[in-house]
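can u do me a favor
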């Protein structure tokens, strides 16, 4: 980090910094496809597929999304996924995801998808689901120039699906479906990493990167377990690492990226307010912090919103915003050459935006 990055840019008014944050090129590394479906699209899919939703309009859906407890949150996820039925539904949500990235100048993403829940609820073969998703991805890439890959996650609450998830991830990677990594989501506290160690060891042996959620609803022990038992290349959230100085030193030394999603943490009650959120402290400790949205419409917070939060609640200067964005490039699973190219594009665009 340079001195220029560090210094709070008093001569750049907050409004300008917010505008810069909105327009700058970005990378999104922690976002769930099912949690990104536009509410209006969800209502349309439910109507088309004859599914009864607990709400009939966008306002009602927002109310249904409002956090009560983590079990309700998981129930919401099931309800959303239950509205998807055909390969064309998957094409549509992937295409709209790409359009939403373009609107925020997100140029590259790594997108989590819970394949086994979708198989269970649709009865479709995984190949048909992946084909639908990739049709939408290809259309979006052609129309908007946004690229992304898939991260398949195991739902902790259904440990019995872990072998199937990994088998599909490996077969889909083989098939050229754009699968990049294995992830672990769901209730951290009741379903510890130990239950999944063998599957993640198998992923490691097969050279499939591991990016489990840890240190969100459970403390540092969960992050240690993700590192030691799940061979995590990157940690989803990881914010509660702050509670263990030894862990902070470990993460900093090895530059293991954290996928921090500030507004999601507030909405899910991990921290009561931005004031006590550890993002700035993790940043100052030299960790490789990336900033992400998690489930944009569910928290009313897309990635542009989160970059604005960096300005408004964490007082990030333009140089620091650029560093956050470049951390996303660095922490991505892109090949080194593609990272270098993306970084060069971003730097050129930062310079152009700054000169305006
Ligand atoms: Zn997540």
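np, heres the sequence
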């Amino acid at each position: 980090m340079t001195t220029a990055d560090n210094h709070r840019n008093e001569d750049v008014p907050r409004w300008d910094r917010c505008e810069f944050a909105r327009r700058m090129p970005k990378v999104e590394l922690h976002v769930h496809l099912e949690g990104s479906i536009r509410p209006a699209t969800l209502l349309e899919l439910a109507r088309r597929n004859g599914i009864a939703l607990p709400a009939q309009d966008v306002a009602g859906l927002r109310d249904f999304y409002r956090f009560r407890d983590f079990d309700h949150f998981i129930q919401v996820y099931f309800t959303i996924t239950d509205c998807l039925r055909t390969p064309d539904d998957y094409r549509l949500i992937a295409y709209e995801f790409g359009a939403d990235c373009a609107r925020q100048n997100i140029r590259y993403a790594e997108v989590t998808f819970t394949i086994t829940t979708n198989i269970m609820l649709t009865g479709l073969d995984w190949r048909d689901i992946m084909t639908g998703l990739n049709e939408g991805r290809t259309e979006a890439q052609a129309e908007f120039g946004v690229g992304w890959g898939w991260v398949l996650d195991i739902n902790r609450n259904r440990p019995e699906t872990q072998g199937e998830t990994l088998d599909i991830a490996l077969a889909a990677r083989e098939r050229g479906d754009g699968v990049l990594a294995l992830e672990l989501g769901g209730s951290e506290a009741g379903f510890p990493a130990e239950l999944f160690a063998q599957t993640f060891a198998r992923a490691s042996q097969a050279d499939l990167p591991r990016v489990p959620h840890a240190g969100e609803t459970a403390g540092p022990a969960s992050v240690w377990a993700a590192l030691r038992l799940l061979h995590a290349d990157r940690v989803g959230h990881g914010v509660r690492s702050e509670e263990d100085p030894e862990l902070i030193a470990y993460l900093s030394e090895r530059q293991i990226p954290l996928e921090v999603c500030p507004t999601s943490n507030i909405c899910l009650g991990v921290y009561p307010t931005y004031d006590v959120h550890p993002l700035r402290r993790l940043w100052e400790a030299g960790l490789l912090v990336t900033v992400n949205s998690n489930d944009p419409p569910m928290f009313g917070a897309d990635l542009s919103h989160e970059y604005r939060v960096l300005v408004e609640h964490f007082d990030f200067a333009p140089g620091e915003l650029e560093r956050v964005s470049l951390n996303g490039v660095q922490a991505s699973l892109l090949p080194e050459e593609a990272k270098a190219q993306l970084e060069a594009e971003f730097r050129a665009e930062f310079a152009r935006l700054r000169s305006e």
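The domain at 13-355 is CATH 3.20.20.140 (TIM Barrel). hope that helps!!
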